[in-house]
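Title: Comparing notes on inverse folding

I've been comparing how different people in this forum approach sequence design from structure. To keep things fair, I'm posting one structure and asking everyone to reply with a full sequence. Here's the target:
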């Protein structure tokens, strides 16, 4: 198996020398197998591995035992492990989400939080070949387009899936061979979720009555369709770049006649790319939203418009299709941050506190996402707190070089209206900390640090 995983890593450029990788570990066979394999590859790739386990609080004492198993496994492998318990059922109820979607959202928020703390650049999750086949079937039954049938991608952003080409049987045999004794989630053996029914009922039925190689064939289908999808997507982006004009952070324009002359497959993708560019998120528009925009294009009546998700508006202006975010920009704010005192921000209903102390006065640096420490000797200008400005750049901890703040927010999937309110702690114009997300590489604590600046943000009830 290790050779197969190495081949997958090499062919898809999943891992590079010196990567710092968060490994998502549920305690089940898939994630335990993933951790064990990456552990065996750590010296060959000079990897720094970190375990991450989220207790969803669905399964009472069994979930607690899972967490203990993960902690023990990581301790045996001498891997730093982060374990967190969250009330996923309550979150799902508050947000009106399914338990699966709520769990997915909170898991990846947890992984991002750990990545910020340790400076990790990859997050490895344990989806396998069977998961891929189940996803293709599930989306086919629900109804989807070409992109949906490409199913689970082997990498997306900093998420990597080294086991996607390995079947579940091989994973179970691997765990048995190395006596890893993974935990078994009994709910996976019950037909209580749609995916479980597909796994336990539909696929076995198809294997027995239609095609014993159904899993392999579904995976191959997804791979073929992804090649087609990638080609069409590449062509669409080139065409979109040539059409898009008058673009700024809040609006862009496309010529009506040019859109009308596009092939339908390209036309719908151009609409989706416009939404993606303005909102900084993929897969925002559903089929019905795209059709509403295309109806506007065909009619071409100036002044007509349609509302799209997340405050986006598509409207006709003479010979152009315009996309705009109509929400008003938040009022710009900037305040000097005093030392050894409190700063209250009405815009956030929150308070900042800053203090300076000698390095030898502390034994441990805070890991709280709202309390960060900086090398005070690197600060050259007046400390201040403000919201973002056009053209802001940032040096995220753990990365080399600067990154546009807008791109940083897009990577973290921060909604546009939230970006306007996000506080930034700055040294003059230099961003030191995007509060709640990440500090700057330029102000991190090092062995040469003699004085430490600690900044704490306490959120008000409205947060």
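Reply #1:
Here's my take.
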């Amino acid at each position: 198996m290790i050779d197969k995983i190495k081949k997958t890593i090499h062919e898809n450029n999943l891992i590079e020398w010196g990567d710092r990788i968060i490994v998502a570990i549920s305690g089940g066979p898939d994630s335990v197998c993933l951790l064990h394999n990456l552990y065996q590859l750590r010296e060959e790739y000079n990897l720094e591995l970190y375990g991450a386990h989220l207790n969803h609080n669905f399964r009472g004492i069994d979930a607690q035992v899972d967490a203990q198993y993960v902690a023990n496994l990581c301790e045996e492998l001498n891997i730093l492990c982060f374990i967190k318990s969250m009330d996923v059922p309550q979150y799902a109820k508050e947000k009106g989400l399914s338990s699966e979607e709520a769990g997915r959202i909170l898991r990846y928020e947890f992984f991002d939080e750990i990545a910020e703390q340790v400076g990790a650049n990859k997050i490895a999750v344990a989806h396998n070949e069977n998961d891929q086949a189940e996803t293709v079937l599930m989306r086919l039954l629900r109804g989807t387009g070409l992109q949906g049938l490409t199913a689970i991608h082997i990498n997306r952003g900093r998420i990597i899936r080294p086991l996607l080409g390995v079947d579940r049987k091989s994973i179970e045999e691997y765990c048995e061979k190395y006596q890893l004794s993974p935990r078994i989630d009994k709910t996976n053996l019950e037909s209580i979720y749609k995916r479980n029914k597909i796994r336990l009922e539909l696929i076995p039925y198809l294997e027995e009555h239609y095609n014993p190689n159904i899993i392999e064939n579904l995976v191959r289908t997804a791979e073929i369709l992804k090649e087609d999808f990638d080609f069409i997507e590449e062509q669409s982006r080139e065409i979109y770049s040539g059409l898009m004009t008058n673009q700024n952070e809040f609006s862009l324009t496309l010529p009506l006649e040019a859109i009308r002359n596009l092939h339908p497959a390209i036309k719908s993708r151009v609409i989706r790319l416009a939404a993606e560019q303005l909102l900084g998120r993929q897969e925002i528009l559903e089929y019905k939203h795209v059709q509403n925009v295309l109806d506007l294009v065909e009619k071409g009546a100036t002044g007509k418009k349609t509302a799209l998700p997340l405050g986006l508006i598509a409207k006709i202006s003479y010979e152009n299709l315009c996309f705009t975010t109509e929400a008003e920009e938040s009022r710009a704010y900037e305040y000097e941050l005093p030392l050894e005192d409190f700063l209250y921000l009405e815009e956030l209903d929150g308070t900042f506190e800053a203090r300076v102390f000698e390095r030898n006065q502390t034994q441990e640096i805070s890991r709280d996402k709202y309390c960060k420490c900086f090398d005070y000797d690197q600060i050259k200008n007046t400390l201040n707190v403000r919201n973002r400005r056009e053209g802001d750049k940032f040096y995220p901890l753990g990365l080399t070089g600067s990154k546009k703040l807008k791109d940083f927010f897009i990577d973290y999937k921060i909604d546009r209206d939230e970006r306007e309110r996000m506080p930034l702690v700055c040294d003059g114009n230099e961003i030191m900390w995007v509060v709640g997300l990440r500090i700057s590489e330029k102000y991190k604590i090092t062995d040469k640090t003699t004085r430490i600046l600690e900044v704490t943000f306490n959120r008000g009830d409205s947060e």
